[in-house]
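HOLO CASE FILE
Compound: pyridoxal-5'-phosphate
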Amino acid sequence: MNDKVSPLENAGVNTRLAHIGYSPSDYHGFVNPPVVHASTVLFPNARAMEMRDQKYTYGTRGTPTTDALCEAIDELEGSAGTILVPSGLAAVTVPFLGFLSAGDHALIVDSVYTPTRHFCDTMLTRLGVEVEYYHPLIGAGIEQLIRPNTKLVHTEAPGSNTFEMQDIGAISAAAHRHGCVVSMDNTWATPLYFKPLDHGVDISIHAATKYPAGHSDILMGTVSANAAHWERLKDATVTLGICGAPDDAYQLLRGLRTMGVRLARHQESALAVAQWLEGREEVAKVLHPALPSFPGHELWKRDFKGSSGIFSFVLAVDDQAKFKPKAHAFLDALKIFGLGWSWGGYESLAVHVNLNDRRICKASSEGPLIRLQIGLEDVADIKVDVERGFAAAKAV
Ligand SMILES: *Cc1c(COP(=O)(O)O)cnc(C)c1O
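Model generated. Tokens follow.
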């Protein structure tokens, strides 16, 4: 084999996940990279120190451990560079701070992750950025909302909790005609099922806390940029002094190795449960982009390579006064599902979703919205648990 050509270049995704980011021969053959704990980096002499003439110069600017993870993410995203930040939320706020200035206008999708909206409505607004929310199904129509001072268009598809799909290619093309930066929170699909940069996005954001970490024990965010936006993104994280920690980076890289097989299982089980729910009389509707009945299904089929383990359903309840008591009875009866927010781990989770923050895409009137993360448990057991929930809700 010609050793200039990477054997991973045309390899399948699980082969790449098993080998990207680190070569064991770089560190005495050990399969995993060393965890480098560092603030101080020493220089051999005063001239090297003055010129910062070596690969590593300061702990916040990267170590061999964080580089291994960043290189792996770059390989998956097709990006020019990736930064690590201490949470998925910081993976949104750091690029927003890096690319927006006082007097700018930013367009944010209305089905955005709720803490992103909170950042926009509080700190970003206080810093003089005008924030406007747009309908997730706007597509090329985004062009009508772009003003001379619009600098950033933020997308998230599928949307948080309600899973609206977005035409990322059309939105990016329109935004670029006006010189706007396009960012995307791609946490649901991961770069395995959707590669934002291939669809015109400039900044791909990931709550690596979710599927890459995969075990409900690590908080981290990754932000990956195309070549035109990489220097400014890197400058933002260095300027803010925000960086990923070495132990977490190590665990993330470890999680990535199995992300493909975990996601395949999440996908299969979630789809099986979603299809089963569609046929249940207790359910008004199921919000899952891979279901043909879902309004954004065609976009999902056109652009995405798969679906992950999280979706929602509307519990059929006639009386509005009973939305909350029935939703709570459903959740409280569950024995396998945990009640928790941060998904992407191996265990199933359920949440009663509150959509009160929405400006445009309001809550359904057919009943309360329940979000499920389908974990790695056996589907038969998951269904039995959901049936416990239905029985308890019915009794209210
Ligand atoms: C969870 C999540 C985040 C935030 O990740 P944290 O690490 O919990 O801060 C950001 N975006 C989306 C879409 C998420 O689901």
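CASE NOTES: The pocket of pyridoxal-5'-phosphate is lined by residues 87-89, 113, 156, 160, 185, 187, 207, 209-210, 219, 221, 342 (CB under 6 Å). Residues 246-278 form the longest helix (33 residues).
CLOSED: yes
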